[in-house]
Design brief:
single chain, Leucine-rich repeat, LRR (right-handed beta-alpha superhelix), 12% helix
Length: 248
């Protein structure tokens, strides 16, 4: 490759990078993520310096995974509109009411809170997520006390289509089982990923999930070894069942 061709390629890369950064800056009210970051990040409730900001063709992602934010970042003064938020492995153990009330999150379609040791999600924690379609809650302790989370999905019941609750323990008085009334509000749910429970049928409340088409036990903490004859009686409309990774 001659010098002139190399020069043109280098110039093209620089222009593309500048265009992307300028778009990201304009999208966030003329400021980059670094501009919005408070000095030294002393306040845990402010935007964390460890978060990464990226803009795609149809998405704007804030990735705070492994950043140690411990709480949902506060964007009250940020004009950004995010479509994807990743908070995996960030040390978050409790989601308080109105955790996502900022207008920056009103357009979220994807939220991941995997691997956080979450033990409590308050009733209105998801309030304001009016466009949320996918929620990832893998590897937490949310359902160790099912009575406390019966209505936590209420704010997103009309939009949620994909829910991943694998590697969470469902226990009532020490008895392990499937979630029951906790999912009854999710009438538009199409895909559900959860742990299998050996030799137990899905509860009758699953019959209310009339939009459910895919059910997966793959990658869960527990497997399905024995399948009772009435296991899927409540969900006759299923078109896809994934038992891979179990011992069935």
């Amino acid at each position: 490759m001659d010098f002139k061709a190399t020069l043109w390629i280098s110039l093209w890369i620089v222009l593309r990078l500048h265009s992307h950064l300028a778009f990201a800056s304009d999208f966030c009210g003329g400021k980059t993520l670094q501009d919005l970051c408070p000095e030294e990040c002393k306040e845990a409730t402010q935007l964390a310096c460890g978060c990464r900001f990226s803009v795609g063709t149809n998405s704007t992602t804030l990735d705070c995974s492994h950043s140690g934010v411990k709480v949902v970042p506060n964007f009250r003064n940020c004009p950004c509109k995010f479509t994807h938020l990743k908070l995996d492995s960030s040390g978050i153990t409790v989601l308080n009411s109105n955790a996502f009330s900022s207008q920056s999150f009103s357009s979220l379609t994807y939220l991941s809170l995997a691997n956080n040791n979450l033990s409590l999600i308050e009733k209105n924690a998801f309030l304001g997520l009016n466009s949320l379609e996918s929620l990832i809650l893998t590897n937490n302790n949310i359902f160790s006390n099912v009575a406390s989370i019966a209505l936590m999905f209420a704010p997103i019941e009309k939009t949620l289509k994909v829910l991943d609750i694998r590697r969470n323990v469902f226990s009532t008085n020490g008895n392990f089982g499937y979630p029951d009334n906790e999912l009854r509000l999710l009438l538009h749910l199409r895909e559900l990923y959860m742990d299998g429970v050996d030799n137990k049928a899905l509860p009758s409340s699953f019959s209310q999930l009339k939009s459910l088409r895919k059910l997966s036990f793959s990658g869960g903490r527990t497997g399905v070894v024995h399948i009772p004859t009435d296991m899927f009686k409540a969900v006759p409309q299923l078109t896809e069942l994934d038992l891979s990774g179990t011992e069935a």
